[in-house]
Amino acid sequence: MGGLKIAPTEIEEVVVTHEKIKDCACIPIKDEITGEAPKLFVVMNEGCEFDQKEIAKFMLNKLEAFKVPKVFEVIDEIPRTFNGKIIRKKLKELNIPAPKCYADLIKPEYQGQIQYPDPRVSGTGYSLISTFSTLWGEEKAFNYLKKLEPNLMQHTKTGLASNYLANGTVAIDLGFMLVYPREKKNGAPVEGILPCEGVGYSLGGASIIKGARNLDNAKLFMDFVLSKEAQEIPWRESDSYQLPTNIHAEPAPGFLPASKLKLVDIDFMKFGTDQEGKRLTQRWVSEVLLESKSPKE
Question: Which residues, in sequence order, are bridge partners of residue 30?
Answer without folding.
Answer: 36
